[in-house]
């Protein structure tokens, strides 16, 4: 079956970067006339047809930024968006905010919609369901600036900002161990997310450093990330009905933490028997009962850094080829009980 040539194909053939090819095809002033002629001639030779979405990436800016997050009701993401907007509006940009509900289908639809609306760039925290990022790679190769925050991926070379998830998890689990807990269960998010793997590594390292054997039967993944309360309650019930039930639970996701506390309360568990620690950015986390020790992320600051990175990509007169991944410290708050 015939496959039309892409910007990436032209870049490979001419030994240029995809962004250079994209700018040359759009008559970017920063590209030499010689390179433009070379690219245009080759594009005509291979009968290159512009992607309709790529066509919407005009030289003129729309001064709008697309934001794609899993859930607006999640305290972490609402705080991150506040950080994004605090910088964006100061710099004259408007934001278009969409949520995926951790659905790949909705994520693709949202990204496609934002690109068609000619946003100048995209800030995204990927969906728990998504494992194939080709739709984002295509847009990136076509010249759309993209920055990842919190849930980041390795597949695209660009700016990224996230938390020190390893250290945050390590500190939380170590606090449970210091409280005398040795059968520590883990309630986690979708296993292929970057944050899931980093927090799992922190959990496991804390066990190893304290000579506690890792037990895979104590791990439960909530693939819907706490958006489905029943999924979390079923996982908690499963743990509490184990022949040798855990004496503590570490929860590696903000939304799962709140759902877990709710489930434990409905199941009438004894808080003296099971301690809880987890990631949580809710403003009311200190009021929860049963109480939990929690890892708080610098969500507002993360949003500010992410949008600064994106604006650097959008406003640069020359292609940026060197990128950084910023890792922000977390804060650990010990339960008062």
TrEMBL record:
SUPFAM superfamilies given in the database record: lambda repressor-like DNA-binding domains, Periplasmic binding protein-like I
Domain of life, per lineage: Bacteria
Keywords tagged on the record: DNA-binding, Transcription, Transcription regulation
Domain HTH lacI-type: 5-59
Matches recorded under Pfam families: LacI, Peripla_BP_4
CDD domains xref list: HTH_LacI, PBP1_LacI_sugar_binding-like
GO molecular function term, any single one: DNA binding
Name under which the protein is recorded: LacI family DNA-binding transcriptional regulator
